[in-house]
Amino acid sequence: MSTETELLAVLTEQEERLQFSRFDNETALALGIQLLEAAREQGLPVTISVRRNGQRLFHAALPGTAADNDAWIERKSRVVDRYGHSSFLIGTRFRAKGGSFEEHSRLDQDVYAAHGGVFPVIVKDVGPIGTVGVSGLPQAADHTFVVEQLALFLAERD
Questions:
Q1: Could you tell me the mean pLDDT of each successive run of 10 residues in the chain, 158 residues long?
Q2: Number of H helices, E strands in the chain
Q3: Which of 69, 95, 101, 111 is most open to solvent, judged by the fewest CB atoms within 10 Å of its CB?
């Protein structure tokens, strides 16, 4: 089994496990604040975004970030919106098939980025309805931070 295939199984399991029973504006705000506080505690230079149905409900940019991080979040969020899976899972899926998202998706790289850091907001029995993401770290670290914070958030509230 290839490393990409093993990673794909882990990423798929995360999406099956990290689901909300409901997700409204207050939930988005609480999630965004948790991500912000955790990033501050860890000294992470990240931009944070929480969206529902295309509407940005939370956005924050910590010291060490730039407008490029906003653009990265938008590009990664478009991948999640299009495919319904995390941006890291989609990039990994293309690599597992022996290629890359950039080569084989036939999508504009200035608009879409299948790099880790944006995760779907999935509501149980509904499906993906938004995104939660960060940009500023290497892609695997961006993804891991979001997943860890989602797991903590859901364990405490959902």
A1: 85 98 97 98 98 97 98 98 97 93 94 97 98 98 98 91
A2: 6, 4
A3: 111
Assigned fold of 3-157: Beta-Lactamase (3.30.450)
Whole-angstrom Cα distance, residue 81 to residue 128?
8
Q: Which residue has the tokens 């149980």?
A: 124
Strands (E), the chain: 47-52, 55-61, 118-123, 127-135
- Which residues, listed in sequence order, are joined to residue 48 by a DSSP beta bridge? 60, 134
C-alpha distances in angstroms, 3 versus 10, 16, 54, 96, 98?
11, 20, 33, 8, 12
Tokens (6 digits) for 90: 């989609």
3-state SS assignment for residue 20: strand
* Residues in CB range of 82: below 8 A, 6 or more apart: 107, 112
Domain ranges, ordered by start, for the chain: 3-157
